[in-house]
Design goal:
O-Glucosyltr/Glycosyltrsf_90; 5-stranded parallel β-sheet; 17 helices; alpha/beta; transferase activity
């Protein structure tokens, strides 16, 4: 646990206020009706990664208990909400949470109010802090202070490579390539001594580059529909490419040499990523919540240009908190790393790492995340036409399990009463009532300012939205 270091006004700077404004501007006060919420619940029924919940009298309830375990990320999120309700007065609200890897609500003048972790320019999901902060112990593992990383992994001692490792998740990426697979193959082929990318889980059958090679071999063996052999492998490969050896994420010519099966890399704990000077942030199914961990390390983050973003991305500035790549081509990271490694750029990259570390500690700490939630729920509650009534939900069940619930199979839906996930993230024991009043008053000013901005200028784009590519570009 950590005590608050600053008030909400300090931990919700204008870029984060802009994200809140972007998400709340679609509805007038009282504009979200029970009918809207009923449509949303029908469209997105409860399952492992989605849940309709309500906060009534500072207790969080499942509106529609499933008696089945929920996703760990969803459970982490409701733990966050219950801790928030334990620590602060909250208005009674009902909301639908989505912790899937994708946003779901298409952009429209009056979207349905789904709370999600990811957003694009074509989606109007409401962004909220992700369950990964709690579930993967971000605070204990990473928020040790930037001076800790200065001492434990000083800049000059960090390995001078662009490092990434992980699972080969692929989603909708720019240029139609899967960055995790493509860069792993380029690294395995030693295209650059500065690129150190590999997979900790790998199945050759699911490697899109190996599928291209298989297709090329089959075409070389039988290059024409009639079965007649062509003169030379080069001609066969050209015929093959014309007939479609390209697949969802790979195509002939992506790699300098033929793709071969990759070797599985040993796992490097996220805390040890601080030992590398340049850390690559690669998209997975959508964006990856690894970014918050990388920023905290004092290493320079290189971020893949992405269609997707999380709630805090508007606070990030290119070349201030990270260096971008995947902007001109799927392989531009090679030139970006080459430029970064030049001696004249070393100090600039060190400062990028230092600024990223400060941002992670100042804006992603537990109290700062609670501030975002508090502002978000205040703004959202003002847009609900009607507060939830417990009597309207006879099957509703508190997410915080009782001893009796544990005796019933599925009664707790995965809620754990004891263990790391359940611990409070903010320590209020040393905080005076006077400071808490000051903090609450600062939040009042933030919320009032956002409401004024919404009324003054509708159609607002958040900072990250204004620099992000559109999903529609991938269809051109």
């Amino acid at each position: 646990m950590a005590a608050p270091a600053a008030t909400c006004e300090a931990e919700l700077p204008p870029p984060l206020m802009g994200q809140l404004r972007r998400d709340m501007q679609h509805w007038p006060l009282g504009g979200i009706t029970p009918r809207h919420l009923a449509r949303l619940r029908a469209l997105k029924p409860d399952n492992a990664v989605r849940a309709a919940v309500m906060i009534v009298n500072r207790s969080v309830f499942w509106q529609r208990p499933t008696r089945r375990p929920r996703s760990p990320m969803l459970l982490a999120l409701v733990h966050d909400l219950q801790e928030l309700a334990d620590a602060h007065p909250l208005a009674d609200v009902e909301l639908v949470l989505n912790v899937d890897d994708y946003p779901f609500i298409p952009a429209s003048p009056r979207p349905l109010p789904l709370f999600s972790h990811y957003q694009t320019r074509e989606h109007h999901d409401i962004l909220c802090p992700g369950g990964s902060f709690r579930e993967v112990a971000f605070d204990a593992a990473m928020l040790r202070g930037c001076e800790h990383y200065d001492s434990a992994s000083p800049w000059q001692g960090k390995a001078r490579v662009g490092f990434w490792q992980g699972h080969p998740y692929c989603g909708r990426h720019r240029f139609g390539k899967c960055s995790r697979l493509l860069l792993s193959h380029l690294s395995a082929q030693n295209v650059s001594q500065l690129l150190d990318v590999g997979l900790t889980f790998y199945e050759p059958a699911h490697d899109f580059h190996l599928r291209v090679e298989k297709c090329l071999l089959e075409c070389a063996a039988n290059p024409s529909p009639s079965g007649a052999r062509s003169k030379g492998a080069g001609r066969a490969q050209r015929q093959c490419a014309a007939r479609g050896c390209a697949n969802a994420y790979a195509a002939p010519g992506d790699l300098p040499r033929r793709a071969t099966p990759l070797k599985v890399r040993p796992w490097v704990r996220i805390e040890r990523h601080a030992d590398f000077r340049y850390l690559l942030q690669l998209d997975g199914h959508s964006s990856s919540w690894r970014l918050q961990f990388l920023l905290a390390t004092n290493s320079a983050v290189f971020k893949q240009s992405s269609y997707y973003w999380e709630y805090y991305y508007s606070a990030l500035r290119p070349y201030v908190h990270y260096w971008p790549f995947w902007e001109r081509s799927p392989t531009d990271v090679l030139q970006v790393l080459e430029n970064a490694s030049r001696p004249e750029n070393d100090e600039a990259l060190r400062l990028v790492g230092a600024r990223g570390c400060r941002l992670a500690h100042q804006l992603l700490n537990p109290h700062a995340r609670q501030c975002y939630w508090r502002a978000l729920l205040r703004l959202y509650a003002a847009r609900l036409q009607k507060a939830p009534v417990l009597g309207d939900w006879p099957d509703a069940k508190r997410v915080r399990c009782s001893r009796e619930d544990y005796a019933v199979k599925g009664g707790c839906e995965g809620w754990i009463q004891h263990g790391p996930r359940t611990l409070d993230r903010v320590d209020w024991s040393t905080v005076t009532q006077r400071w808490r009043r000051t903090d609450a008053e600062s939040l009042d000013r933030v919320v009032a300012a956002i409401e004024l901005q919404i009324r003054a200028a509708p159609g607002f784009e958040s900072d990250i939205e204004s620099i992000s590519p559109r999903l529609t570009e991938s269809k051109k």
